[in-house]
């Protein structure tokens, strides 16, 4: 029982989340590189492009910088992870449980959405199934980082710490706002879908689900849930 309590707490920490999503990031970048033979242009997930365009404002490009950012985040999270004595023990088996959780949540979301209609939760469509699979890997990593980690954390901080709203109120507004932006994002750009009210509402509902999941279970499980869901839609 104590181990499960430890798992529930540690599995949502930035340290475990970043380590857990690292294979997704590496697989996505390597497969993208194999398609493009370049780490700057070509086939990429929409959120990935947005992420890189932001750093492009500072004339920073390329896979190696992204790797540097991830490595830096890992080192920082590892430092804070080890500041607490009760978290010094590293549990590799937690990753298996985190993957199992992600699969369960992805299937739950898939079953729910399929009852209404099929919709992908990624920006960047292509008729090639292999390319769609690659983009699904990037969707979990980059879209969840932007729309959950950055937006929800940012909105919550602004509403709770700046505007002094109640924590629950701030969290609810942050989840709804981030989910709305998440849904709108899938219709933006040349690779975006044609706008439809039905798919917009489906993506908004999925965004709320993923946002709540992020708040409760952290970035890693949410990223894998997103990716596995998209893979289910693509392959089934």
Describe the structure.
With 236 residues, the chain is mostly helical. It has one domain. The chain is built from nine helices and no strands.
What is the topological layout?
Elements: H1 2-10, H2 14-36, H3 46-56, H4 63-81, H5 93-114, H6 129-162, H7 167-185, H8 197-217, H9 219-235
Helix pairs in contact: 2-4, 2-6, 2-9, 3-6, 5-9, 6-7, 6-9, 7-8, 8-9
Class from secondary-structure proportions: mainly alpha
The total of helices stands at 9
Helix content: over 70%
Q: How many β-strand stretches? A: 0
Summarize the model shown.
The chain has one domain. The chain is built from nine helices and no strands. It has helices at 2-10, 14-36, 46-56, 63-81, 93-114, 129-162, 167-185, 197-217, 219-235.
Question: Descriptors for this entry?
Answer:
single chain, 236 residues
């Amino acid at each position: 029982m104590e181990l499960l309590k430890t798992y529930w707490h540690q599995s949502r920490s930035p340290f475990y989340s970043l380590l857990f999503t690292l294979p997704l990031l590496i697989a996505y970048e390597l497969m993208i590189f194999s398609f493009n033979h370049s780490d700057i242009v070509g086939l990429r997930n929409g959120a990935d492009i947005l992420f890189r365009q932001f750093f492009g404002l500072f004339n920073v490009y390329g896979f190696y910088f992204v790797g540097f950012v991830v490595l830096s985040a890992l080192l920082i999270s590892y430092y804070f992870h080890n500041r607490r004595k009760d978290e010094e023990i590293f549990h590799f088996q937690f990753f298996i449980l985190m993957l199992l959780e992600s699969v369960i949540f992805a299937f739950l979301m898939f079953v729910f959405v399929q009852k209404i209609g099929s919709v992908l939760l990624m920006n960047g469509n292509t008729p090639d199934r292999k390319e769609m699979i690659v983009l699904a890997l990037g969707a979990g990593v980059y879209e969840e980082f932007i729309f959950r980690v950055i937006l929800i954390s940012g909105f919550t901080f602004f509403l709770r710490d700046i505007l002094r709203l109640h924590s629950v109120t701030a969290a609810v507004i942050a989840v709804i706002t981030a989910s709305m932006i998440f849904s709108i994002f899938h219709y933006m750009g040349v690779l975006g879908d044609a706008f439809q009210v039905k798919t917009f509402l489906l993506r908004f509902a999925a965004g709320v689900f993923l946002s709540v999941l992020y708040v409760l279970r952290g970035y890693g499980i949410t990223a894998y849930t997103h990716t596995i869901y998209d893979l289910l839609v693509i392959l089934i």
